[in-house]
Design goal:
The protein is an alpha+beta fold. The chain has 8 helices and 6 strands. The radius of gyration is 33 Å and the shape is elongated.
Length: 291
């Protein structure tokens, strides 16, 4: 089991350049990837995205890539004058038409990687991409390790909460026949009182009692609860993404608990259902953290 929260970092100095990759993620229903990298190596973005998709299935993942040449004497500066001219033109237009003062400066232009693109004269794109993916792989290992560590903590918490769900389920199962018998006795007493003052078909009344008691029975719901609990225990020991499976099971657990609550008029069962739903809600909240 993996958490959707994780962090990973790896950096490497090659002969001519330095690469650093930092990864972090938080919860998200689907995979939402944000990659930030210098424009000088933007050609490798698709390879980076494909690699991440092969490793991560859910979560909002931010990837920060830093790339620098170590020997600045071998670096040429390529300036996108066409884009720069557009910036200047828009700046002047805003100043003339709207009175907005321009803060476009040399230092800001130099920091804009879309305009200023440092590149080595003997640039070897394939080699740089190869080294970048190696660094990304190491950062991803660190990242996935942190996710797995957090996932193990979540698994342990799931087991504690499932034990309580199971305990409450077995209490309800033990209490159910007692509650049903009490309901039967109350119904029989009321029918007996009614029969003393009215001429009614007694067999028909007893049949109706049996039908009412059958509607009050919660045996099927308890059986399904126990099956869902076992399935939950099995799933949290599986490898790979399991978050969506857990979401579905929790919905089913909650459905059975609601049905039991609506059927039963026994105060002990009702109180147990309230606690049961509370534990299921805790499971739901924790499942939001699982990949």
């Amino acid at each position: 089991m993996n958490s959707m929260t994780g962090y990973g970092l790896f950096e490497k100095k090659c002969e001519d350049f330095y690469i650093k990759v930092e990864m972090k993620s938080v919860n998200n229903r689907y995979l939402d990837m944000n990659v930030r990298m210098p424009s000088s190596i933007m050609y490798a973005e698709e390879a980076v995205r494909s690699f991440i998709k092969s490793k991560i299935k859910r979560g909002k993942v931010d990837v920060f890539i830093n790339f620098e040449y170590l020997d600045s004497s071998q670096v040429e500066i390529d300036i996108d004058y066409e884009l720069l001219n557009k910036y200047i033109s828009i700046s002047k237009e805003l100043e003339e038409n709207y009175g907005l003062s321009s803060d476009l400066s040399f230092s800001k232009i130099m920091k804009d990687s879309n305009i200023v693109k440092p590149q080595k004269a003997d640039f070897d794109g394939d080699y740089i991409k190869e080294e970048l993916l190696k660094v990304l792989d190491e950062a991803a290992k660190d990242f996935l390790k942190s996710r797995a560590f957090e996932g193990e903590k979540i698994r342990e918490d799931f087991k504690i909460k499932l034990d309580e769900v199971e305990r409450l389920t077995y209490f309800i199962e033990e209490r159910a026949p007692i509650s049903l018998k009490e309901n039967e006795n109350r119904l029989r007493e009321r029918v007996a009182e009614f029969l003393q003052s009215s001429e009614v078909n007694e067999d028909r009344i007893l049949t109706e009692i049996a039908i009412m008691l059958d509607k009050l029975s919660i045996d099927e719901e308890i059986t399904r609860l126990k099956i869902h609990i076992q399935n939950f225990n099995d799933i949290i020991n599986e490898e790979g993404p399991i978050g969506r499976k857990l979401d579905f099971l929790i919905q089913e657990l909650n459905r059975e608990a609601n049905t039991i609550g609506s059927k039963s008029n026994d105060i002990e069962i009702t109180s147990s259902v309230v606690m049961l739903k509370s534990e299921i809600e805790k499971l739901r909240e924790q499942a939001q953290n699982v990949e």
